[in-house]
Amino acid sequence: MLSREDVLRIARLAKLKLTDDEVERYRAQLGRILEHFKKLEELDTSDVEPMAHGLEVANVLRADEPRPSVPQEEALQNAPARRDGYFEVPQVLER
Amino acid sequence: MRETLKMETVIGLEIHVQLATRTKLFCGCSADYFGAPPNTHCCPVCLGMPGALPVLNERAVELALKAALALDCEIPERSVFARKQYFYPDLPKGYQISQYEAPLARDGHLDLELPDGTTTKRVRIRRLHLEEDAGRLVHDPPTGRTLVDLNRCGVPLIEIVTEPDLRSPEEAALFVKQLRRLLRYADVSRCDMERGELRVDANISIAVDGRPGTKTEIKNMNSFQAIEKALKVEETRQRMALERGGTVQPQTFGWNPEAGRVEPQRAKEEAEDYRYFPDPDLVPLLIDEAWTRRLRAELPERPRERRRRLQEGYGLPAYDARLLTEERAIADYFERAVALFPKPKEVSNWLLTEVFRLLDEAKLAPEDLAGRLPPERLVEVLRLVDEGRINRNTGKAVLEEAFRTGREPEAIVEERKLGRIADEARLAELAERVIQEHPQAARDFKAGNERVLGFLVGQLMARTQGRADPKLAAKVLRDKLAAS
Asked: Chain A residue with minimal CA distance to B60?
């Protein structure tokens, strides 16, 4: 079973703030998902190549030909804040 | 006791190189973003709009493969793109498309040429993979806001990770120089460090008595000088701590070039957890023999091989061969010029002094030289000098004008009457005047003082701005003095 700390850590990684009720609700829901995967783990896959994609397709490639970008106005139109053509966000620290 | 500790510096590098494509890695937006107004090179894909799908740029794959081949990497048949997830405003999707478990290439090497000019040292390449760049952030502390420009977001990069095989800051800088040269030769990237097209992070630790030490990471080293300086500062800091019996803490530093310091970057609350997984939007990349064979055939001669060939094939001194092969464009230029004017040392002399000076003054990149001054023009100047029609100094002036104006050297010589005066009658006239102006010298010569002739020849040369043929000038003066 998933611990409360596990749920809080996942929430932190997803930048979500959860109420105590939600922590409990997701703990149960996420726990059920994990149980489902446990069930899948019962299959013996030792002879199966790991699969990275569901399609039997490879090498979908594009020629290096420029195409028009969207106008700046359109690029910014969903932004809650902007300044001088930039998206504006609360100050962040160096990564 | 402590003096007996045997300390060895251990450095590994992580290098990001922007590939010379026209478009971004997963969309058709122009990758030529430098200096463009913010957020004008964007589309739903690189803005991270829901539902937009990435499609891989074939050219980016080929350039990355060329880099891998130039570094003698193994290229697995199959490589996979993965999502590296983190939240930061330079990354609108919330994940970077990179490669993780199945990188494009691994297990390569670069044989570093050491400063002694003869020995090499093998530096192993652990992996080389493709990934997309993030956007650019402009911090504005007065307003407590950060501005985001996503033009760079999605631009193709390769990340090259070395094994910790480097043993000094000098060696690390040398490695980056030679890696840059190799990638520029292969046209993988321009590697313009001022534009951030080649960025270097390093891990550094001190092994004591053969035991591995604790690593720290240095970021933001964006010039050869910065690499050497930053690593020296950190090397000294770690050594001093260990000599005093202290310890080194794992930490990430940023290099502050203005202050000449490494500055701790804010410690993260918890270890990064990128939760890599294969990107379901992208299908695997399969690379077969035929593809790598074709790309290998497109690779140019390596810098080291080319240097050897220039040295041996044209009988050039090692010094000349080394300078001529630092840049492929210069080596190409040299060979084109020598094909037209088969005096290699003479071509090399002019290139390494006059042409390099002109390039430097005009702040031109080596690859722009042939467009500015085609080899044919340089050779024309060399011929004019070689045939004695102009002297060496005039040749330099003509070259400079040809470089500046793009005009034919021959036409410049004609128009500015720079050609040597070999017209005896004209020189005789001038000699007459020189003798009249210096009667004492003329008398001294007639009295048997031969050395005075040199002075008179100098006067005649000055009157012709150095264009007189000195031998003819002496003859004409002698004739005049004998006759007067």
From this structure: A64
- Give the angle subtended at the CA of B314 by the CAs of B308 and B318, to the nearest 5°: 45
In a domain, B296, yes or no: no
Give the residue on A whose Cα is nearest the Cα of B269. Answer: A12
Residue B182 contacts residue B110 (beta carbons within 8 Å): yes
Q: In terms of domains, do B112 and B241 share one?
A: yes
| Pair (B379, B458) in one structural domain | no
pLDDT in tens, B329-375: 999 999 999 999 999 999 999 999 999 999 999 999 899 999 999 99
Q: Do A94 and B285 lie within an 8 Å CB cutoff?
A: no
Q: CA angle at residue B304 from B298 to B310, to 5 degrees?
A: 95
Q: A50 Cβ partners below 8 Å, 6+ apart?
A: none
What residues of B are in contact with residue A93 (Cβ under 8 Å)?
266
Q: Alpha-carbon distance B399 to B413, whole Å? A: 10
* Residue B252 shares a structural domain with residue B270: yes
Question: Structural domains in chain A?
Answer: 4-41 (1.10.20)
Whether residue A49 lies within 8 A of chain B, CB to CB, comes out as no
For residue B30, the chain A residues in CB contact (below 8 A) are 66, 69
Please state the domain count of chain B: 3
Query: pTM (2 decimals)?
Result: 0.84
Q: pLDDT tens for residues B131-144?
A: 999 999 998 888 88
CA gap B154, B55 in Å, rounded: 11
Chain B residues lying within 8 Å of A87, measured CB to CB: 39, 89, 147-150
- Smallest Cα–Cα separation from B98: which of B277, B218, B219? B277
Q: Which domain holds residue B429?
A: 424-483
Q: What are the backbone angles phi and psi of residue B407, rounded to the nearest 5°?
A: -85, 165
What's the farthest any 2 CA atoms get from each other in chain B?
102
- Does some domain include residue B255? yes
Q: Look at residue B1 and tell me if it is in a domain.
A: no
Same structural domain, B320 and B459:
no
Among A37, A61, A73, A77, which would you mutate to test the B interface (most chain B Cβ atoms within 10 Å of its Cβ)?
A: A61
Chain A contact probe: residue of B95, B97, B146, B151 with most A CBs at under 10 A: B146
Same domain, B240 and B127: yes
Same-domain check for residues B284 and B313: no
Q: What is the ipTM of this complex?
A: 0.87
Contacts with B137 from chain A: Cβ below 8 Å: 92
